[in-house]
Design a protein that fits this description.
The chain has eleven helices and 15 strands. It starts with a strand and ends with a strand. It is an alpha/beta fold and about 325 residues long. It has helices at about 40-45, 70-75, 90-100, 105-120, 135-145, 165-180, 190-195, 215-220, 235-245, 275-285, 300-310, and strands spanning about 1-10, 15-25, 30-35, 55-60, 65, 75-80, 155, 185, 200-205, 210-215, 225-235, 250-255, 260-270, 290-295, 315. The strands form three sheets. It has a seven-stranded mixed beta sheet, with helices on both faces. The chain has a four-stranded antiparallel beta sheet with strand order 2-1-4-5.
Length: about 325
């Protein structure tokens, strides 16, 4: 649905986007992450045709954004980080105004506007002045304008910025539902939201893509591979002593005591070895039963920091 090839953007001597390539498949929700100044907004602005590229190409549903801008832009709905709404208009009036701008046929407008208001849950606000709405509802009105014309691609730049936790959850549900019928690029700084909503995550740093995969596979690929949490039955000091003396264990720390007579510990092992079997055999030999053992997954926050730290050279891509 979206094909980005050798995309580059220069501002004088500054290289904002450095020869990036990626594809977003039909029906996919792609989380687009990056620290401030990484080239994220510049890339999104080029995808929507708001900025032209220095080099490379962008194709939307087979139409080049520069060679056939009208056809390409017809297929894109865009919600910038500041929604382009007019405070002195009523919600329904504003959406009809957007229909005019997008040349939506007059006989389709009423049903389209009502359907879109229903899908983003603003039907009750249709007769209200936009300036009197809460920030959460203003964001939804901005999302509704992006959906006018039912474009197959939605580009959402920070759609939950400034919202309270309840509004974030509501907006997340709306975006998840939209993903059934749309291809979505979602930019966000709230990494838990990206984990919850997106099929794939792409991280950009210093104008280059440094990671691209599902949140789960990124976690597998970048985790130390040897961090485990165990619940072991027995005396805490004796358990710690036994685990510390295992050659492939790098560190062990007590997490909690959640069951009587047991201790939960986090063990960091040498990533070149499978620590699980060695732990099992050693603790069994000391009559210390393991009641639980599981891997500690690396979070998206940790992945983000790991691939965007100075140098950020680790490139993970399975897209």
């Amino acid at each position: 649905m979206i094909q980005v090839s050798n995309l580059t953007k220069r501002y004088g001597q500054h290289l904002a986007v450095d020869n990036i390539n990626f594809t977003v498949n039909e029906g996919e929700i792609l989380g687009f992450l990056g620290p401030n100044g990484a080239g994220k907004s510049t890339t999104m602005n080029m995808i929507t045709g708001y900025l032209s590229s220095t080099a490379g190409s962008i194709s939307i549903d087979g139409f080049d954004i520069l060679e056939k801008p009208e056809e390409a832009k017809k297929r894109i709905g865009y919600l910038p980080d500041l929604p382009p709404i007019y405070g002195d208009m009523l919600v329904r009036e504003y959406l009809y105004f957007v229909c005019d701008i997008k040349n939506v046929k007059k006989d389709n407008r009423k049903v389209m506007v009502e359907n879109i208001m229903e899908s983003v849950k603003i039907t009750d606000m249709a007769g209200r002045l936009i300036k009197n709405l809460s920030k959460g509802y203003k964001q939804r009105v901005g999302l509704a304008q992006a959906m006018i014309g039912f474009p197959p691609v939605l580009v959402l730049d920070e759609p939950t910025v400034g919202l309270d936790p309840k509004q974030i959850i509501e907006m997340r549900d709306v975006i998840t539902n939209l993903g059934r019928n749309h291809t979505i690029i979602l930019s966000s700084h709230i990494l838990s939201e990206v984990s919850a909503v997106c099929d794939r995550v792409m991280i950009i740093n210093k104008g280059r893509i440094v990671a691209s995969d599902t949140p789960e596979k990124l976690s597998e690929g970048l985790s130390k591979g040897g961090q485990l949490i165990l619940r072991v039955k027995g005396n805490k000091e004796e358990i710690i002593n036994v685990i510390q003396n295992i050659e492939v264990v790098e560190s062990v720390k007590v997490e909690a005591e959640r069951e009587p007579g047991t201790v939960d510990v986090i063990v960091d092992g040498d990533k070149s070895s499978d620590v699980r079997e060695i732990l099992f055999n050693t603790l069994s030999a000391h009559q210390m039963p393991i009641l639980m053992m599981k891997s500690v997954d690396i979070t998206l926050e940790q992945i983000f920091l790991q691939v965007t730290q100075a140098g950020g050279a680790q490139h993970v891509s399975h897209s």
